[in-house]
TrEMBL record:
Chain positions covered by the region annotation Disordered: 175-199
Full protein name: ATPase
Stretches assigned to coiled coil: 53-119
Compositionally biased region (Acidic residues): 180-199
Keywords: Coiled coil
Length: 199
């Protein structure tokens, strides 16, 4: 940073003093100066002082503003970082809760699915056993009905064959009475075909 004008004027005054000579009749620290030159330097120094002070004040004010702005930005960054950190913490907690809830839902769904499967298997077994029992009952009823039909058919057939035999015997007897001289062949016993039919 370059020196200010006040510093330059002070240096000029110092250089000027160093260049001045002492009085002819005297010694010590006394010197002879050019009044006009000295007043010119002092006048310029006096004029530059308020200007330099204002410039330094402005720099100081800017410095304070810069520091305040930097402080504000730093606080904003810290606040934003805290917010993001809190959001990350909240997000982690939310994810953790969601994960736990998902596990609970999965466990519940698995349990319900297993229960449904067990109930369906039990119902299917009960239906199968019921169908087998129903079919067996129906077959048993049909077996009983067929056995009854067979027994009744055999009984009716035997009675019918007896009737036929009696009717045959009656016809044979009647013919014998109508023509006693005609030798009629003796009535044969029931043929093998008839016996097989009766069985």
């Amino acid at each position: 940073m370059s020196n200010s004008r006040i510093e330059q004027i002070i240096e000029e005054i110092e250089d000027y003093i160093d260049s001045c000579k002492g009085p002819l009749f005297g010694g010590g620290d006394k010197i002879v100066v050019d009044r006009e030159r000295m007043e010119e330097l002092l006048r310029e120094l006096r004029m530059k002082t308020p200007e330099e002070i204002k410039r330094y004040q402005k720099i100081l004010a800017n410095k304070d503003a810069i520091l305040a702005d930097a402080q504000q930005k730093a606080e904003a960054i810290i606040a934003q970082a805290n917010i993001q950190n809190q959001e990350l913490v909240n997000e982690h907690e939310i994810m953790q809760q969601a994960y736990e809830q998902a596990n609970q839902v999965i466990e519940m769904a698995t349990s319900q699915a297993q229960e449904i499967l067990n109930n369906a298997t039990r119902d299917a077994n009960e239906i199968r056993l019921g169908a087998i029992q129903y079919t067996d009952d129906m077959l048993a009823n049909m077996q009983t009905m067929l056995q009854d039909v067979v027994e009744k058919s055999n009984s009716h057939y035997s009675a019918m064959m007896d009737n036929f035999q009696q009717f045959y015997n009656t016809i044979t007897s009647n013919r014998a009475e109508l023509a006693p001289e005609t030798e009629e062949p003796a009535p044969q016993e029931t043929s093998e075909a008839e016996e097989e039919a009766g069985q």
